[in-house]
What does this fold into?
Amino acid sequence: MADGSKMGRPPIGGEIDAVVVGAGFGGMYMLVKLRALGFSVQGFEAGHDVGGTWYWNRYPGARCDVPSLFYSYTWSEELQKAWRWTEKYAAQPEILRYANHVADRFDLRPLIAFETRVVAAQFDETADRWRVTTDRGDELLARWLIMATGCLSTPRKPPISGVDSFQGPTYHTGAWPHEGVDFSGMRIGVIGTGSSGIQAIPQFAKQAEHVTVFQRTANYSVPANNTPLTEKDIEDFWKMYPAYIAMVKGPGMGFGGNPANALAATPQERRQRFEEYWGVGGAGFLAAWGGIITDIDINTEAADFVRGKIGETVMDQKTAESLKPNDHPIGTKRICVDIDYFQTYNRPNVRLVNLKETPIAEVTPTGVRTTDETFAFDALVFATGFDAMTGTLLAIDIQGAGGAKLKDAWAEGPKAYLGLAVAGFPNLFTITGPGSPSVLSNMINSIEQHVEWIVGCLDHMRGQRLTRIAADPDAQEAWVAHVRRVADKTLFPRAASWYMGANIPGKPRVFMPYIGSGYRQKCETVAAAGYEGFALTGAALTRATEDVHAP
Ligand code: NAP
It folds into this structure.
């Protein structure tokens, strides 16, 4: 694996067609496409190499909850055939190897300045260009600014009293040390039981002397039933590949649903099907019956089923009761996929602290104090999530037309047209931005769809010698209202989830992803109608000729 580090490089300047921020799966594919179409392009990436979320989230047990064969780019069948996944659900190191394989195979690193954060971007209305500046002193003028910054890329520690006072080592699952951590012989405290905590805790328990888990909200989790991939699995995958591609490239892309009608089935039939889906494992459990995410009765049956499984698995009934989620419908917080999570509480070296009964009062220099007890630890792990979907974008000082700031435009929650563009911020695109299916879909599929749409748009602009594309505020308002209306027909708004911004005190409560169907078709219709809902302007597009890449 080549090291993408560019320590000591001279600043990058000049004029260029496009800046791409982020070198995860979104940024890498964007670079491939733009370069292929002859656009001059510069990528920036905060990490020292490619991989995005899979670069940062290296905690033990980190795995994708989408089956590996479907968590691969589809834009190159050659690539698809060359890469051999080893497990049904790939672990983080394997996914990172895949990202590196892509970077090597398509020679992407020369296009990317690593260890570099974009800190500001100002739109110059006279030139129709973004002035992009970084923490390494780079200053570039770019016609197009493409944010491939990911949806879960700003880890956050909660504002618990004394949170930074602990004297021992502290870790966040979303920014795990690259050299790994050895907890052997240690007593550790873990705060947080979302997907990251639920994956990591069983691994910590195998190594540490003792693990204390601080749980505020009990979460629904389905066993992964992970297995090695066999030759037959791969053969079967290729047999159904054309149908799979037809499905993901089909008009319906967005949040699908199983048409199986739960109401027409008997309780026994419903239970049997829940058992079948539980046996298969994974997040697909939510597709056991249509309506789980919209009908509270069906949802409650699914939730009861999972609560029953927790009760059967966890031996200590007080612990089991605490682990049973009871304050939100199943699926309205991201459903977790685990390996031996609930079984881990049967180990003698693991203890659950139910923060609903005894909240954390403070983090102390030696551990954690709840309203009931004081705990001493050798290390503390925060599995406390991210400032999702907007945090990374708003950490950059983005100023659009007339100097308007993105943080002001989004003061009441993110507003974006199709989740792709923001009114008042011309020539800026967000890959899997708020208002698009993003985190509710297979991210790889959504990334590909956005990249292809954006590149098609830029190619159109160039062909027409246009230099500015701006989302129309009315079109944006209508889309945002539609996104909200669709969400309100589901059970999602009933949970205090990160989808709603509820995990960050003071963040506006808005359901951020798009949960409707037909999203791809909508985007294609907009493009086919000459980019309906956008204003396209500009006279002469002068191609940048200067080579701005760092040596
Ligand atoms: P998360 O789902 O936001 O979970 C954060 C956890 O920290 C929650 O249990 C939360 O409790 C707890 N917490 C936050 N503030 C707290 C406080 N002040 N006191 C006590 N507890 C507190 O974050 P995550 O687990 O990192 O997962 C985020 C998302 O990343 C997932 O939903 C998923 O989309 C993605 N992810 C995917 C995978 C995968 O593919 N398998 C793995 C990891 C992450 P509350 O619920 O009460 O707020």
